[in-house]
Amino acid sequence: MATEQTSDEEARLTTLEQQQGLITQALVAALQGQWVGAPPSVEAFLYALNPTLQGTLNLDPPVVP
Amino acid sequence: MTDERLSVLEAQQGLQTDAIAQMLQGHWVGFPSLEADLGALSPGIQLEPHPPLLSSEAGPPTPPDYLKHFYPSTDMPQQVYSWTCSACALDWVLRATQVAPNHTREQAVEEIGYPENINPTYGLMDANGTALRAVYDLYAIPTFQAWLNFDQVWAAAGHTTGQISGGAWYHWVAIRGQSGSDIWIANSAPGYAGVYDTLSRDQFNRLGPFSCVLLVP
Questions:
Q1: Is B27 left (phi over 0), alpha (psi -120 to 50) or beta?
Q2: What percentage of chain B has pLDDT greater than the value 70?
Q3: Radius of gyration (Cα) for chain B, nearest Å?
Q4: Closest-CA distance of chain B to residue A65, Å
Q5: Delimiting residues of CATH 3.90.70.30 domain(s) in chain B
Q6: Is B200 exposed, middle or buried (0-12, 13-18, 19+ CB in 10 A)?
Q7: Minimal CA–CA distance to B63: which of B215, B214, B217, B216?
Q8: B19, B85, B119, B144: which could join B115 in a potential S-S bond, CB 3.0 to 4.6 Å?
Q9: Mutate to test the interface with A, among B5, B20, B27 (most CBs of A within 10 A)
Q10: Can you tell me whether residue A43 is helix, strand or coil?
Q11: Interchain proximity B23–A30, CB inside 8 Å
Q12: How far is B38 from chain A (nearest CA, A)?
């Protein structure tokens, strides 16, 4: 049985959808070996997911041949 | 969707974000790590991790071909003419890197462009080193030019070579490397302005600002 969603739940769902999209893009960047630097990189998508991480990480990405 | 289910999704999203942060920092196993986050996302999951080689474990990057055979002790004879210091430094870099081991200063003057780019009246015409960079291009050596401070040049001298010129020195020298806290230089006019084989911070600041044409390391 369908239930009516509150505006708060709608907002949380929208945020989750956006975050899910960013995680997917971060995984794509990882697969392509673009770990750090300007977008599209894992680092850039991570900061989009959580801007408070900027300047707090000690980066040590995998070596990309 | 219930509030409880949304909360679970938000918690999972937080773990996934943290998992990415852990990977980016080289924390693949242990705690905190990607492995720990996966354990929290899927309790009881059986993992056999094979973490990748990390940048911190890989050692220094392989230098480009033009820096693989760089001999910083390569001889730098004194310049014969007062206006050819930039050509002498250019010639030294090409010989010291073995890119053109039999290169001559006369060649350098011609390649820089006599008399439009270098001449007895002014020496090198453009302190930004555009004409010098064009010669390096001829030898397929990528360079960059910048006006750098002492610490920047000293740091660069640990990784690459090139040539630098002080605005108040009006003289080009090549970079051999580091000598303690000084910059080790190949100087075609030893003693000029009191500088011989090294450039100290005080000398650098007295003779600058420095235009630097450096090989991309």
A1: beta
A2: 100
A3: 26
A4: 10
A5: 65-215
A6: middle
A7: B217
A8: B119
A9: B20
A10: helix
A11: yes
A12: 15
B61 and chain A in contact, CB less than 8 A:
no
- DSSP conformation letters of B170-206: TEEEEEEEEETTEEEEE-SSTTGGG--SEE-HHHHHH
Out of B3, B17, B24, whose CB is closest to A43? B24
> Closest-CA residue in chain B for A3?
B1
CATH architecture, domain defined by B65-215: Alpha-Beta Complex (3.90)
Best CA proximity match to B212, nearest among B138, B129, B131: B129
Q: Identity (one letter) of the amino acid at A4?
A: E
To the nearest whole Å, the CA of A28 is away from the closest chain B CA by: 12
What digits encode the pLDDT tens for the residues B98-151?
999 999 999 999 999 999 999 999 999 999 999 999 999 999 999 999 999 998
- Widest distance between CA atoms in chain A: 53
End-to-end, the C-alpha distance of chain A in Å comes to 53
DSSP class of residue B125?
Answer: S
